[in-house]
């Protein structure tokens, strides 16, 4: 690989993406600079040139991951005016990331305790708070409008985040049940539970939500990375 590519932004991004894969597969303690350099076919010195410590690699990867999630939800909110559907959409985007942004999602969720130990801590906290505020904002608007009935907005948001985030422990991309199926079931159950209405008017059906998720496609982030770093390397070596 030419020197200008080793030291350029493309290699820096490959380091971030590949490290997310390694952390997702092995955990932060096991994932090492040596493993990373071998996986990318570069020297350890090149990795250290870009990131003096692996904490900094993970911190930047997590920050980019949260930027993708926040950016996606703002596009969704611009497109979807109803609070019920906004909540369903947010649940879908979180669960969809378990398939379409999988290394970043698993790395982010399994290593949250390490966030204070590297990178731009304030920027990361700001992003996490911003994402949380999107959820609480949806819930509050639904409560004010009389669509949702709950006591504590913070606890309710924690409940929904916990349900959606825990998917990483059991979902596999090749399972017969898709992320759309999971999100539609979760969202339908949640909306029924939160609904201030009664009878047939409560919530949304799974089939309604599946159709809604399909319509959301233009607002969603593309799969990330577009191809796994390992596939990029194989394609390069095959030229």
From TrEMBL:
<dbReference type="GO" id="GO:0000976">
    <property type="term" value="F:transcription cis-regulatory region binding"/>
</dbReference>
<dbReference type="Pfam" id="PF17932">
    <property type="entry name" value="TetR_C_24"/>
</dbReference>
<dbReference type="InterPro" id="IPR036271">
    <property type="entry name" value="Tet_transcr_reg_TetR-rel_C_sf"/>
</dbReference>
<keyword id="KW-0678">Repressor</keyword>
<keyword id="KW-0804">Transcription</keyword>
<dbReference type="Pfam" id="PF00440">
    <property type="entry name" value="TetR_N"/>
</dbReference>
<feature type="DNA-binding region" description="H-T-H motif">
    <location>
        <begin position="32"/>
        <end position="51"/>
    </location>
</feature>
<dbReference type="GO" id="GO:0003700">
    <property type="term" value="F:DNA-binding transcription factor activity"/>
</dbReference>
<dbReference type="InterPro" id="IPR001647">
    <property type="entry name" value="HTH_TetR"/>
</dbReference>
<dbReference type="InterPro" id="IPR041490">
    <property type="entry name" value="KstR2_TetR_C"/>
</dbReference>
<keyword id="KW-0805">Transcription regulation</keyword>
<protein>
    <submittedName>
        <fullName>TetR family transcriptional regulator</fullName>
    </submittedName>
</protein>
<keyword id="KW-0238">DNA-binding</keyword>
<dbReference type="InterPro" id="IPR050109">
    <property type="entry name" value="HTH-type_TetR-like_transc_reg"/>
</dbReference>
<dbReference type="InterPro" id="IPR009057">
    <property type="entry name" value="Homeodomain-like_sf"/>
</dbReference>
<feature type="domain" description="HTH tetR-type">
    <location>
        <begin position="9"/>
        <end position="69"/>
    </location>
</feature>
